[in-house]
Amino acid sequence: MSAMFRSFRTFNYRTWFFGAVISNIGGWMQATAQDWVVLTELTDNDATAMGVTMALQFGPPLVLVSITGWVADRFDRRKVLLLTQSTLMMLAVAVAVLLLTGIMTLPLMFCFAAAFGVTNAFDAPARQAFVSDMVSLEDTSNAVALNSASFNMARLIGPAVGGLLIVAIGTGWVFVANAVTFLAMIIALLTIRTRELMPRVKNRNAGGLAEGFRYVWGRPDLVVVFIMVFLIGAFGMNFPIFASTMALEFGRKADGYGLLSSVLAIGSLAGALLAARRDRARVRVLIFAAGGFGVASIVSSVMPTYWSYAAVLIFVGFSTVSMLTTANGYVQTTTDAALRGRVLALYMAVIMGSTPIGAPIAGWIVDAFSPRAAIMVGGVAGIVAFGIGMGWMLSSGRLRRRDNTRFQLTLDETRPLSVIRAMNPASFDDRVTATTPIRLKNK
């Protein structure tokens, strides 16, 4: 099997992947419908209200991070996901009923956005950590990249289909369709062979989130990754606000907005598949992808036509997913397995919790100035993130001259170690792991 798809050798991962694709398509359809409802049905093109909705939906991972990471480490992740996916399905049905009966109001939509956010706060770290439960450590980086490809494959299809369905049958029925797609993920979780899951590493210490925070604080490389992801997540990744308001500026309707989201996903899918080809996640890819995101965003903000703006979005999507997939894979594969759930909860709090800070600001900039100004601010955030990453790389001493050449430079990465199977000399395997998990002693 191709190295790009090596995680598909595992039955559990194959089952998970295809269930996730179907469920994610429905999720992107619903996201498109929700944004359009707030922007055009519940308000008169109020981008600030849309920013508040996003803040309510993505704020809970930041507020509840002390609980969600502990839950992901302490409880059976498959059972946690069954509960969260079922809850998200019921919430989608409730929103559909209120929209179809004409009862939905903006305050009610705010409440449901918060409910989606609370449920996703528990779902996200368990889902991210569950990927590493299904494959070996050496395949974890590949599995994370393919997971991102699944997400962006759905992003390629979902918004375009959602936009067409909004025009054809209305927003309420889009929520109904999403509720049905949750069944794919629930069936996949029930089908997974639990006996083939990787053994869970038990944490011997009683510390909770504070232990995960101390671990991250003791890893300067992770601190830099978190800061870069926060900057771009807060100010650059408010795509629903950017794409919907730019669609209106170009005189397009819901289908035009959905098409922009799908075009963004073309580059995103390419970035995810390219990441799947790499043997491990590298910080230098993250740094240069952040710079690419900044440049592409600034260029997109000055595009004069709908189609030229859409074309540049391909590069925005490519750099965004290259950055996020690399960051996710690096965090997962270099983190002590006993603390992985808590560290991932912190990571998800940074990436999802940055939205409540940045989305209202982006909405205000759109209303006060223009969508182009808001996109420009996001591009500048990408350039700043690139500068922080480069500054750390130069000051950390990892960048040095190659030993065997005079002018070429090389960057020291986290060193992999050879895997030796204990108690069975005949099964010695000199393949390297994806990267070296680092365990820090409590001080």
Automatic annotation (TrEMBL):
<keyword id="KW-1133">Transmembrane helix</keyword>
<feature type="transmembrane region" description="Helical">
    <location>
        <begin position="91"/>
        <end position="116"/>
    </location>
</feature>
<dbReference type="GO" id="GO:0022857">
    <property type="term" value="F:transmembrane transporter activity"/>
</dbReference>
<dbReference type="Pfam" id="PF05977">
    <property type="entry name" value="MFS_3"/>
</dbReference>
<feature type="transmembrane region" description="Helical">
    <location>
        <begin position="309"/>
        <end position="331"/>
    </location>
</feature>
<keyword id="KW-0812">Transmembrane</keyword>
<keyword id="KW-1003">Cell membrane</keyword>
<keyword id="KW-0472">Membrane</keyword>
<dbReference type="InterPro" id="IPR010290">
    <property type="entry name" value="TM_effector"/>
</dbReference>
<dbReference type="InterPro" id="IPR036259">
    <property type="entry name" value="MFS_trans_sf"/>
</dbReference>
<protein>
    <submittedName>
        <fullName>Putative MFS permease</fullName>
    </submittedName>
</protein>
<feature type="transmembrane region" description="Helical">
    <location>
        <begin position="372"/>
        <end position="394"/>
    </location>
</feature>
<dbReference type="GO" id="GO:0005886">
    <property type="term" value="C:plasma membrane"/>
</dbReference>
<feature type="domain" description="Major facilitator superfamily (MFS) profile">
    <location>
        <begin position="1"/>
        <end position="397"/>
    </location>
</feature>
<feature type="transmembrane region" description="Helical">
    <location>
        <begin position="256"/>
        <end position="276"/>
    </location>
</feature>
<feature type="transmembrane region" description="Helical">
    <location>
        <begin position="222"/>
        <end position="244"/>
    </location>
</feature>
<feature type="transmembrane region" description="Helical">
    <location>
        <begin position="343"/>
        <end position="366"/>
    </location>
</feature>
<feature type="transmembrane region" description="Helical">
    <location>
        <begin position="283"/>
        <end position="303"/>
    </location>
</feature>
<feature type="transmembrane region" description="Helical">
    <location>
        <begin position="160"/>
        <end position="192"/>
    </location>
</feature>
<feature type="transmembrane region" description="Helical">
    <location>
        <begin position="49"/>
        <end position="71"/>
    </location>
</feature>
<dbReference type="InterPro" id="IPR020846">
    <property type="entry name" value="MFS_dom"/>
</dbReference>
<keyword id="KW-0813">Transport</keyword>
